[in-house]
C-alpha cells in the first residue's frame, strides 16, 4: 500500500486523512492494481474516523466504489457529502455539523461541493484526461454506489467540442462521445 509519508503511522495526528488515496484519485498516480486496492482498503478502514472533515470526505465514496463495495460507497457519499448540505438553502458547509459540532457553520464550502462533482464526473465513471482522443479517457469498469444505475451528462466540453458522458453501472468502460 501507499502510505501518506515515509514515517507514517495511522495513530499520528490526522493519520486517518486519506492523502495517499488522493494520490490515486483525484490525482492519477499509477501503481499496480494490488497496490491501489491495498491503499484504498487501508484508508477505507480509517474512513469512519475521517468522514465529516473538510476536503477529502466527498471522495471516500469513489474509493469504496473502486474496491467494489457499492453499499459502502453510498454510505460514504451520504456521510461524506450529503451530511454537509444544510437547509434552508442547501448550502454545502465545511464540516459535518453532527460529527464536528464545535466547528462554526461555514459555507458555501467549494472544496466539498467540488469534491462531490469531481467524484461524479471523473471518479465514478473512471474518466482520466489525457493526450489521446476523449473516448480513450474512460479507463476502468464503472462501479456506482448502491441504488445508482447510471451517470448521464448530456453536454460537456472536451477539446472545445460538445460531448456526452454516459456511465452505466457494470459497464466495462464509460462512454464519452461527440454530440
CA-CA gap between termini: 40 Å
Helix content: 25-40%
Structural class estimated from helices and strands: alpha+beta
Q: How many alpha or pi helices?
A: 6
Largest sheet: 3 strands, antiparallel
**Integer average pLDDT:** 96
Q: Can you count the beta strands?
A: 5
Order of helices and strands: HHHHHEEHEEE
How would you characterize the overall build of this protein?
With 179 residues, this protein is α+β, with helices and mostly antiparallel strands. It has six helices and five strands. It has a three-stranded antiparallel β-sheet, with no helix packed on it. Strands 1-2 form a two-stranded antiparallel sheet. The N and C termini lie far apart (40 Å).
In brief, what are we looking at here?
Helix content is 31%, strand content 14%. It is an alpha+beta fold and 179 residues long.
Task: Name some characteristics of this structure.
179 residues, alpha+beta, two-stranded antiparallel sheet, 5 strands, globular
Break the fold down into its secondary structure elements and pairings:
Layout: H1 19-24, H2 33-45, H3 47-50, H4 60-66, H5 70-80, E1 85-86, E2 91-92, H6 110-123, E3 150-158, E4 161-168, E5 175-178
Antiparallel strand pairs: 1-2, 3-4, 4-5
